[in-house]
Amino acid sequence: MLEIIFVRHGETETNKKKLFSGWTNSKLTKKGIQQAEMVCEKLKNEKLNMIICSDLDRCLKTAQIINKHHGVNIIEEPGLREINFGKWENLSYGEICEKYPEKSKKWEKDFVNFIFPDGESLYQMYDRVNGAYKNIVKSCKNGKILIVSHSGVIRAILSQEICKSIDGYWKFNIYNCGIARLQYVDGFPVLIAVNQ
Question: Which InterPro entries did the record assign (predicted)?
Fold first, then answer.
């Protein structure tokens, strides 16, 4: 049986400031490091075959902290990056509405297909992430894999695996260092936990 454990990275400086941070490298806060250390302790008795993470610093640092008791390979996967907010990176929602009033209205009307200026759409991210995820699942039929990534990425995967479409995207709220688990029973994905 294959089990995938998902962990969102620890709190970052941009999370704390409530800024849009997709492809921006943002450092973990002191709290974010403590969150990762708590996950490290919670997962210390799990037998992990490997850890796969987004190649952004906040995920790699979280993965390295969790890996303290495991010592397994950490594989960086760019396909598991958060959505690219383009020119909206490092802006607050209020700043976006002020600087881009027309585009922010278009985004609110169609959040799935709207392409962030110089970035990507939610649908493009969803497609990219699930393509990368399918390759991971295909290459690992059994065992236990830890994926350390972003809230949008974990939502995209759970939406596809559980709801079979992007329509389930906002049904999952993923906390910093929350643990989610998917088990594949005869190839069928079963959601065991969210935000442990």
Answer: His_Pase_superF_clade-1, His_PPase_superfam, Phosphoglycerate_Mutase, Ribazole_CobC
Which residues are known to be catalytic?
9, 82
Domains of the chain in start order, with CATH, are 2-82+121-193 (3.40.50.1240)
Task: Indicate the burial class of 110 (C-beta count within 10 angstroms; 0-12, 13-18, 19 or more).
Answer: exposed
H or E element that contains 130: helix 122-139
Cα 82 to Cα 151: distance, rounded to the nearest angstrom: 8
Mean pLDDT of successive 10-residue segments in the chain (196 residues)? 97 96 96 98 96 98 97 97 98 96 96 97 98 94 95 98 95 96 93 92
Q: Is 173 exposed, middle or buried (0-12, 13-18, 19+ CB in 10 A)?
A: exposed
User: Biggest alpha carbon distance in the chain?
Assistant: 51
Any known ligand binding at 152?
A: no
